[in-house]
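We modelled the chain as a single entity of 145 amino acids. Its sequence is:
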Amino acid sequence: MALKQRIESDMKAALLGGNRFAGETLRGLKAAILNEEVAQNKRDTGLDDATIEQIIAKEVKKRNESAAIYDQNMREDSAADERREAEILSQYLPEQLSEAELKTVVDAKIAELGATDVKMMGQVMGAVKKRSRQRCRRCDACEIS
């Protein structure tokens, strides 16, 4: 639960330091984590860091999608706010793999599984996703494999 505690302490520091935007963003993330704890009936024990990372990734994706919609509707100010929120939340995710690192992982899994045709792409993708967890975006792995 170290990640949850880090989010809570950063939220308090941001609010006390006068950074209301970051504080409110982290407060929203804390609420999303609490909702998931209640949904999984783990309110007392809490969620593990991997599950919290998945929640954060989901929240970042929501912010990026909202920013794209705002851009389409010529609302640059709202899109900028959404991007700032996504940037704040991204600080709590593991560092993303570079394209070269991801290509190395994919090539290694293809060799390990002996994948020779497109029919085995699902197996390769599952193995890559399991190995890299939240460190790569799914669309990047699809393109490389």
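As a brief sanity check on the tokenised model: Residues 49-72 form the longest helix (24 residues). The radius of gyration is 18 Å.
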